[in-house]
Amino acid sequence: MKKTNRLFIISAALATLTLGACNKDLNLTPPSNTTVGNQGQGTAGSYIKDATTAEAALASCYGYFRNGSSEYYVLDYFNIGDAQSDNAYAGADNAAGFEIDEFRLLSTNAWASRDWGYLYNQITACNSLIANVPNVNDPALSSGRKAQIIGEAQFIRARAYFDLVRIFGDVPLVLTELPTITADNLEQIYPLLYPARKSADSVYAQINADLKAAAEVVPTSGVNKGYVSKGAVYTLLAKVAATKKPVNWAEVESYTNQVIALGYSLLPVYDNLWDGAHENSAESIFELNFDGWDTGGNWGTSMFLGTDWKKFCNPSNDLVRAYQQEKDTVRFRSTITFANVNGKWGDARLPLDSFPFFYKMRKTDASQNIIMYRLADVLLLKAEALNEQGDVGGANAIVTQIRERVKLKQLNITDQAAMRLAIEKERRLELAFEGTRWQDLVRTDRAIPVMQAVTDGKGVSLGYHLTEKSLLWPVPQSEMDQNANLIQNPGY
């Protein structure tokens, strides 16, 4: 589709202002949710004037995890991280999901469009807070609390940008609110209304800047893991360092060490992470807390588990086989459950008499928490960093620690290449259905060979045909149509 011409947009907007010139106070509302005001009256953050409204603004930033962007966090996050990988099939009957699963993605894909919007909406809320809270002059809001509020918003913004840059590559980097639009400033504001994409390196630089600032002011830890802590910040810094090329493995090791030093510990029983009775545990670092429908309930469980209709993110034959081959019964039972669905629906790949379901979210009363970051993930990142720096023995010891919890034999690997594959497998079995698998494969340059080798339950190739362009999603066509400054990813 043809992109909208820049001059046409400005001319049309100016014409609107001219027609309404009899009202000298006439302003335009920004056509995009990507940016909102910084100066002047009527901006999105202008309501932030005191301690109460500053706290409300922070609650709004967190609220996108449970309400405003919940479809991303309780559903799409797992379809991106697991169904797009060898862990699962898209399931259900949604054509947009099949496009993603089978690497037939189009720029008109509805899921791509909504996820772009959800993440930028959360960023917009953070921008409003970051722009306006520094100007609050209220004795009830101490300077320390003010700094902490801003730091928490910086983490949330950085986390959203980290997903955007991994999914789409170069993306618009929007960091400020937009002044109220008038006839006098429209030309100057145009680049803010319709921002161009910035390089992935620029986005990563901003993510790191936000996180390093947040690390200085957020609490060390907390009982409620639903709030930003130093552990969450250092975990995200480690993940960013392990993703941005070229990878600085010494930096990854440093950040993981800072997380470990904060005193998190593995739960003795693996299933306690998912049974709903041990939420905000000693292993959890950052967790989305859900109480029930009245407070933005986690409806994702019913998207993945149940026999009333065919669910999303059906565990793949390949993942079932991986658990069985490793004799990993502990994690297998916590991760996947089975039911007879004969007569309920059909499936070309999975057995109907023993149909697999994602089981790490299993409470159906909307109160199931979602663990975003936990210690086992950090430990395995450290193992990866040690191995890449030549300390194969140190990596072996960490992987063995993870395996011992689930009653698997220790490893005795001395070869770096073999250890690299062992860590990849361990991360898959440990973190399946936690939204990490696809991005793990991409960041380690393993997505193409792994996905092309995937077979069905009978060992027949599924015929995934990936190229480098498959590793990024297209910029949504709806965004291209509105913004003449956007350039599409290659191949779309």
From TrEMBL:
<dbReference type="InterPro" id="IPR011990">
    <property type="entry name" value="TPR-like_helical_dom_sf"/>
</dbReference>
<keyword id="KW-0472">Membrane</keyword>
<dbReference type="GO" id="GO:0009279">
    <property type="term" value="C:cell outer membrane"/>
</dbReference>
<keyword id="KW-0732">Signal</keyword>
<comment type="similarity">
    <text>Belongs to the SusD family.</text>
</comment>
<dbReference type="Pfam" id="PF07980">
    <property type="entry name" value="SusD_RagB"/>
</dbReference>
<feature type="domain" description="RagB/SusD">
    <location>
        <begin position="361"/>
        <end position="492"/>
    </location>
</feature>
<dbReference type="Pfam" id="PF14322">
    <property type="entry name" value="SusD-like_3"/>
</dbReference>
<feature type="domain" description="SusD-like N-terminal">
    <location>
        <begin position="107"/>
        <end position="240"/>
    </location>
</feature>
<dbReference type="InterPro" id="IPR012944">
    <property type="entry name" value="SusD_RagB_dom"/>
</dbReference>
<feature type="signal peptide">
    <location>
        <begin position="1"/>
        <end position="21"/>
    </location>
</feature>
<dbReference type="InterPro" id="IPR033985">
    <property type="entry name" value="SusD-like_N"/>
</dbReference>
<keyword id="KW-0998">Cell outer membrane</keyword>
<protein>
    <submittedName>
        <fullName>RagB/SusD domain protein</fullName>
    </submittedName>
</protein>
